[in-house]
Amino acid sequence: QVQFVESGGGLVQPGGSLRLSCAASGSIFSFYMGWYRQAPGKQRESVAVIGSGGSTNYRDSVKGRFTISRDNAKNTMYLQMNSLKFEDTGVYYCNTGPPHDDYWGQGTQVTVSS
Question: Omega before 99 cis (within 30°)?
Fold first, then answer.
């Protein structure tokens, strides 16, 4: 069973940047992978997904600001987040795409605040 560990979150001002990392305990090269987030009081939502070959898809609100990438050799996925907004605040998780209930990790907190 694969386990995911997210890191890289933090407190950032609006307009700032963060780079999230997702380390997998096993090989992920064949998996669709995704970043998800949950804002306070809201349901978890998909942010971006990436195919095994590198194809990507983003939710409209992050297009042009976020970039998802992966390094299959390192079993790691990334989310580069630029021009962060207040509404990007939340706990960010990585998982397969679509997500598997058994693979949710602890997530990493992203707080955008002035």
Answer: no
Q: For the chain, 114 residues long, give each residue's pLDDT as a single digit of tens.
A: 789 999 999 999 999 999 999 999 977 778 899 999 999 999 999 999 999 889 999 999 999 999 999 998 899 999 999 999 999 999 999 999 999 999 999 999 999 999
Copy the structure tokens of residue 85.
């907004």
Nearest to 47 by CA among 8, 83, 91: 91
- β partners of residue 114: none
CA–CA dist 72, 29 (Å, integer): 5
Contact 67, 80 (CB under 8 A): yes
Residue type, 14: P
Which candidate, 34, 83, 36, places its Cα nearest to that of 63?
Answer: 83
Establish how many alpha carbons lie within 13 A of residue 60's alpha carbon, considering only the half-sphere containing its beta carbon.
Answer: 0
